[in-house]
Predict the 3D structure of the following.
Amino acid sequence: MVDLATRETKHRSGENRDSYLDNIKETCTSIFEGMAVTFSYLFRPPITTQYPDRMPVSVQDTLPDRYRGHLYVHMDTCISCLLCEKACPIECIKIEDVRIEKIMITAADGKPTPKVKEPTLFNINMYKCMYCGLCVDPCPTGAIRMTKEFEGSTENIQNLHFRFITPERRAMAIRLGEEQERKAAEKKKAHAAEAPAAKVVPTQTVADAKAAPPVEASAAAAPAATPPVPRAAAPSGENGGSASDATPVPAPNPPAAPTTPGGNVTNAPPGRPDEPGAA
Amino acid sequence: MRALLDSLAARFGIVDPSTTLVIYLLGMVVFSGIVLLLFVAPFAGITSYVERRIAARMQSRVGPNRVGPHGVIQWLADGVKCLLKEDLIPADADHLLFRLSPYLVFIGMFGTFVVIPFGSSLVIADLDIGFFYLIAFSSLVSVGLIMAGWASNNKWSLLGGMRSAAQIVSYEIPAGMSILAVVMFAGSMSIQGVIRAQGWAPHTWLIFQNPFLFAAYFVFFTAALAEGNRTPFDIPEAESELVAGYNTEYSGMRFLLYFFAEWANLYVIGAVSAAAFMGGWQVPPQIPEVIRPIAELVTFVGKSLIGVFLAIWIRWTYPRLRVDQMMNVCWKYLVPIAFLNIVGTAVWMMLFPQGQLPAVAASIIMLVIALAILITFVRKVIANLREVGGGLSFNPFV
């Protein structure tokens, strides 16, 4: 093979009389070499993989740990704090919730976290999502996270509109919310009945309250300290009667709140449909 | 063919000359229909699949493997797809010429099958001027391509058509001249005559008769590739420069006809090089008379398929030539070498008369040299495989 530099020198110095035969020789040898290379490739296994059904391991298993695929929300640990909804730059997350009795859950980092709201709607428009991961960072319990699933092809784009609340779970959450409303209303009535007595002997009330669990005591003693956010009123109807009198709804911290720090999730009422365990 | 029809006519008691002529005509039409439907069409389709698989393996890919087992009916799916597509004709195109040109290309390709044999008696017409007819008729393809380029009313198409005209006209000269050396040596212009001048043993093949015919084979094959618009001479449809060249505006089945012609032309290249240089359908005389036609058919098609594989292999090895490079290759190299081959063959025939000891010895030496080149090639392939390492995969279906 004559390299280009020598050929150029030859050409300049005028001694290219044999370049015609050189070219023929070069053509023959290079064709020979090139065809040997391609022929040898016929006996090599292909380096491409046959996606998706003939892979030795699934592609999802080969992805790095921090791969940003489809979003998944573990509804048992979601406390409906709406931080992900606010973090989303393109507003593809939509959350509605009701207030419930406080339950303690264990967040992804093992920290016990109170759960006072239960989502009744948690939708993610995966076809709008840009996979930035900004919703994952603020989540205090690690409920929302990105999976390694990336196959989004579907015949109907609505299949990419992920609804993490099943209708059963939504019904359950609404029922829980109504229960909470009812309890709050009962407590308010009791509070209202107690109110004149408390005016007469306030120390008595405090002394009585000390016998009760501390959460109720704080709620009863300082109702204004916990700003009432009656979000629960919207889905559960107006039977709570919070609009009839000016007395604010006490903070929903019922004494019966079971706090089991060891368990991941404590389901207060029995018979609650369990979360899909595909964590 | 004629002998077969004669025997048929005699069996039915037809001796009238005018009736016999009609029988000849009908027989040829029927046989050409059989060849077209049962051989050329499936061959073009299957070659498209095989080519894609070979190309994939040469590029370390897998290739089409979805339609049917290992994708073997991919070509049928492609054909059905193209048939069902909309047949678009641009508003400003010349409608008549636009519609006509795919058929001209198709006829130009298929007309060559008239003289291509499949055995000693299996040929549509054994013309005395077989090679001349072949070269002349395949020029119709360039008429079709220019017509397509002009009728499309599109700059890319026109450029592609003009390039194909320049290319085919240029490369017909080295192809024809290489064939001329063969015709001189064999003493016949009929394809069957050239095959009869050779024997079944490799050292009796024309390619090994003398060094000039050996060179003529490669000159012919290169020129034939260029005539068939195959890579590395596919500048009429150079995708990177001309969108798709002359067939830019075509769609559906009209588009497919060009590719049909291209792949069928691949077989023509292989068949002509097999007939002219590699002994054609010659089989050893020990083969019994009963299975002889089948053995001849298998031998000839097998040899042709080697040429087809070679063309596919070259296509996926070399990049496309530039227009000026292509003209350089033709006029500066192939044409002089082709003329040299004619003169050299003539001198050789005078120095070493055929059938005598020196000529036979020369052909055996040529065969040994060719085998040595082949062994060097195999060793190079093995060295390439060793160099890269990794596993070997001899399974064609992965």
About this structure: Residues 64 and 236 of chain A are 44 Å apart (CA to CA). Helices of chain A lie at 4-13, 19-41, 59-62, 83-87, 167-200, 202-211, 214-221, 233-236. Residues 201-279 of chain A have pLDDT under 50 and may be disordered. The first strand of chain A starts at residue 71 and ends at 73.
